[in-house]
Specification:
about 160 residues, three-stranded mixed beta sheet
Amino acid sequence: MKRIFIRTILLCTKENDDSLILIIMRIELKRLDDAFHFEAVSETGNIALMDGSENIGGSNKGVRPMQLLLMGLGGCSGIDIVMILKKQRQIIESFEISIDGERQKDKEPSLWETIQIHFKLKGTIDKEKAERAVQLSMEKYCSVARTLELAGALITYKVSVNE
């Protein structure tokens, strides 16, 4: 089986320092069958399975790469929000994120056009702090959101606390 190597370079700032640190990520992909089933492994050993839909000859043994982008958006913003709310000593009992996206029609490549996110938090959480944490994530910290926006996606969101 042939492996595909992808190297991603991110620039980050050190805490309390304006200088940039270069972070290199390495992802290795391995084709698992004679169709479209791939295993992706991060430099830390975490695995994601991807596959094509049955209508193109895949076997639904993994998520589609475009679905993985939305999952990455949810994970990125979710991590930001939890970090911010923990620093504010908010107690999160449950946190769910629903993401709906619509892709461009009749275009190749077919990029994300609109993405709607619903952040659902429960616990001892001040609603204003939750809303601010989401805003900070979506407008300042989440690299995935920024990447999708630069590609032309319109991202909207709403926040529910203890509903």
